[in-house]
Amino acid sequence: MSLKIGDQLTLTIHDLAFGGEGVGRVSVSRDESRESRAEAASAGFPALDPRPSTLDNFVVFVPFVIVGETVEVEITEVKKNFARAKLLRVVTPAPERVAPECKYFTQCGGCQYQHIDYAAQLRFKHKQIADLFERFGKISREVVAPVIPCPSPYGYRNRIMIRSQWNGPAKKLEIGFIRADNNFVVDIEECKIAEPVLNEQIKEVRANPPPKGGIKVVLRVQPENWDVPESSFFQNNFFLLPKLVETVRDFLKAGGSRHLIDLYCGVGFFGIETAEAVDSFVGVEYDQLAIKAARKNAGVRKIQNGEFISAKVEDALPELLKKFSPEKTSVILDPPRKGCWPETLQLLRETRPAQVIYVSCHPATMARDLNILCADGVFELARVQPLDMFPQTQHVECVADLRAGQILPNRAQSIQLDESNGERRTN
Ligand SMILES: C[S@@+](CC[C@H](N)C(=O)[O-])C[C@H]1O[C@@H](n2cnc3c(N)ncnc32)[C@H](O)[C@@H]1O
Predict the structure, then answer these.
(1) CA–CA separation, 283 and 118 (whole Å)
(2) Is 314 helix (H, G, I), strand (E, B) or coil?
(3) Ligand 1 in contact with 308 (CB < 6 A)?
(4) Which end of the chain has the lower number of beta carbons within 10 A, N or C?
(5) What is the pLDDT of residues 28-40, one digit of tens each?
(6) Residue 93 C-alpha to ligand 1 middle, in angstroms?
């Protein structure tokens, strides 16, 4: 058959791609259906079924489904290498299917997995990460530990952003989140994954709406005993925070370094929480208000073995790496979602600190960066610990423990990324 928008078909779901969409396959007659894994990866779906797409198995992505289900769908988009469809009906539900708690689920873009039993969400996330690392980062899936669950799979988010938008045709102000299927705002009265106190604040925002659309309101629960400026970063799930700290601290202690460089340190969270494991530490962060807060946060805890530098990581790191002997130094990387600058990774490859602990909420950029660090055995990946900081959603936090590899120093070659295809070249 030739596939077009509006077609209705019945599919079996084979996999859950990163991003939460199910992967179904259909037979099509078009020539352009010949898809390669590389093409699929460039479309943003690296965790695909490894079988290449052929006439017999053209990929169709469907949201809100589960592996093993048979579903009726309607095609909404047809690309050269894949199509997208909306779910019309679940014909054969998977045993893991549960009723979502939120009445806005499937309309609101915030959650992707409320229809999946929580234990199964953890298994699917583990598989997605292991697939992603294996295929995109060329990293053995054996190093990926089971996902640590969140003790509170609902009511956990301590920060949300409420948007407002004037809906012309309906002549009303929508106050809520971005929709799942377009960039308009869906009107919401509550959020099931947000902390209860934020739901009280949502009521207040709705009772006193901004005069016109376009205004964003950030609602936040301040962490106890941490000074966090309004616009600065803080981890957004207090329930799993102790496990996140424990993981980083355990990795650091196992590394046995005397010095720690905490890069992208925010208000000093990891440096302060692990200060007693090292002789000295330095935190680097470009948000000046966060650095001021970090100094205060260390001060109230009487932590005296650390300092905080307000600078871009890429500017401060060369000097810092000269200051500490590499064999006694661990580096924490906790970059924003886009990952680290290539220059930062290159510098770490050249100086080879004993340990790099990479913390990330974006496994795809993390896999890319780990692949660069580990190329030619310059670093070896000992373990990846995923933590479910974002239940009901496609997101997951990972902490990776890398050790300087047992290679000769002159093999710590430079790596250049070939921008055209994302492959690396060694010099
Ligand atoms: C994911 S947050 C991590 C913060 C901190 N590690 C924590 O756990 O609270 C990333 C931080 O990196 C900072 N940042 C982003 N790009 C940076 C850069 N090039 N140099 C320094 N800091 C940067 C952001 O301001 C943000 O505070």
Answers:
(1) 36
(2) helix
(3) no
(4) C
(5) 865 444 444 444 4
(6) 42
